[in-house]
Amino acid sequence: MRSVIDIKELSVSEIDELVSVAKDIIANPEKYAHKCEGKKLATLFFEPSTRTRLSFEAAMYELGGNVLSMASAASSSASKGESVADTAQVISCYADIIAMRHPKEGAPMVAAMNASIPVINAGDGGHNHPTQTLADLLTISREKGRFDNLTVGFCGDLKFGRTVHSLISAMERYEGVKFVLISPDELTVPDYVKRELDKKGIPYVETTDLTAVMPELDILYMTRVQQERFFNEEDYLRLRDSYILTPEKLENAKSDMIVMHPLPRVNEISVAVDRDPRACYFKQVLNGKYMRMALILKLLGL
Amino acid sequence: MNIDSIKNGIVLDHLTPGKGMEVYRLLGLDRLDCHIAIIKNAPSRKMGKKDIIKIADDIALDTEVLGYICPGATVNIIKDGKNVEKKKMSLPEKLVNVVTCHNPRCITTTEQELPQIFALTDHERAEYRCIYCETLAKN
Which of A161, A295, B96, B138 allows an S-S link to A223, with CB 3.0 to 4.6 Å? Predict the structure, then answer.
């Protein structure tokens, strides 16, 4: 039974296949409107994440399938002490596929090891969130028309930002990709990520100066500095405000550069940027739903 | 100090000095009923000092973990007083219930019946990561 827990489990050709199915869904939604009839998706969210859950549910409904959802983690059997392994086996009796969000890292993997139906990791703590990366990849493909020969800038919290690490590991497999890592010194990319890049001979530069590197970028991926990662308020506030993207800062950027963000944002992209045609973060949300549809179809073998 | 050579059994040689007891425990030798010798800090030409464990019984023993605890360890199978097989241990691909994940956000901290599994992710640096949360094993 195939599950998707980490973006690295999907090969380049599988990603290409998902992207092309997603584009076909966008072009011919009626062709897919009944594909999942009679199938049920269980959304097991042990941690609140309304938008990811709604995205999965919308994806399943648009495929003609049904959704089983639990009201909240507090009302689930987990609050009675049931293990993830047992929950996975029980839900396998009711549903055809599971989307699981869990605060503990590795919980969806444990579910996948015990379920008899496919499990999609819908985020496990600060660890993996493969369908976010799939949304990012469809956005890049639709907006830039390619994955190769791109200079990708990541800005903000590159230390804890799981979306950054996942997108780097997905993009590093393409020819001619260069990374520009823009962050305050306290929030640089972890050493093991850089070691992987060094080992594979993939070019990257680290800088603290967003404005200076702006003209080089084909993609600018902004991230939020998350308050829950900090122990003191002062550090959080200082770092939160280190990089705020404004229309002025975008003046030096390429006219076809795209601005991405996994959302939610706090203040790192000023609202005035939303009107810039290069702003793609709301398109990413929509693309996330299409990629979840493509992934559900693939894992159900439809 | 003299310890008799064994006729049939297993000799775990070239163990990192001081690691003998840990190996004894990890391989479950404490649960065996046979004659076992643990030799600590034996003189070694190659290593200066080494630990040795001699097991005087022809048992099936999973010694894979030795490659992790004592890099360079050798496993010798003795039959009728002759060394019939000498195996140099290399880093195992997986460690099961050898190292504990120290990441407080890992699922293994709340579900303690889960096996602690670490996989070899960097051969050169001998790095192992938890299969659940990918946290690096602490030596």
Answer: A161
B110 chain-A contacts, CB cut-off 8 A: 104
Domain span holding position B101: 94-130
Query: How confident is the model over A117-176, as pLDDT tens digits?
Result: 999 999 998 899 999 999 999 999 999 999 999 999 999 999 888 899 999 999 999 999
Residues 230-289 of chain A with CB under 8 A from chain B are: none
Min Cα distance A110 → chain B (Å) is 8
- Token output for A119: 């499990």
Residues A70 and A141 grouped into a single domain: no
In this structure, the answer to whether residues A199 and A264 fall within a common structural domain is: yes
User: What's the ipTM?
Assistant: 0.88
Do A160 and A273 belong to one domain? yes
Write out the two tokens for B118.
């670490």
What is the arrangement of strands in the sheet containing B117-122, beginning at the earlier edge strand?
Answer: B94-96, B117-122, B127-130
Alpha carbon distance B21, A42 (integer Å): 49
> Within this chain, do residues A135 and A281 fall inside the same structural domain, yes or no?
yes
Give the residue-averaged pLDDT of B51-72: 92
A74 and A137 co-located in one domain = no
- Map A10-45 to HEC letters: CCHHHHHHHHHHHHHHHHCHHHHCCCCCCCEEEEEE
B33: phi then psi, degrees, rounded to nearest 5: -105, -5
Closest CA to B98 of B20, B22, B13: B22
Tell me the shortest Cα–Cα distance from A87 to chain B, in angstroms: 13
Exposed (0-12), middle (13-18) or buried (19+): which is B4, by Cβ within 10 Å?
exposed
Q: Is the pLDDT of residue A75 over 80?
A: no
Q: Measured between CA atoms, how close is A191 to chain B, in angstroms?
A: 12
CATH of the domain at A34: 3.40.50.1370
| Tokens standing for residue B111 | 């579900």
CA nearest A15: which of A175, A130, A107? Answer: A130
Q: Is residue B139 part of a domain?
A: no
Interface contact flag, A192 B136, Cβ < 8 Å: yes
Q: Are residues A164 and A266 in the same domain?
A: yes
Contacts of A78 (CB under 8 A, 6+ apart): A46, A84, A87
The reply to whether B72 falls in a domain is yes
Say whether both B70 and B16 belong to one domain: yes
Does B3 fall in a domain? no
A80 is catalytic: yes
pLDDT in tens, A212-243: 999 999 999 999 887 777 768 888 887 777 78
Tell me whether residues B111 and A83 touch, CB distance under 8 A. Answer: yes
If one counts the domains in chain A, the total is 2
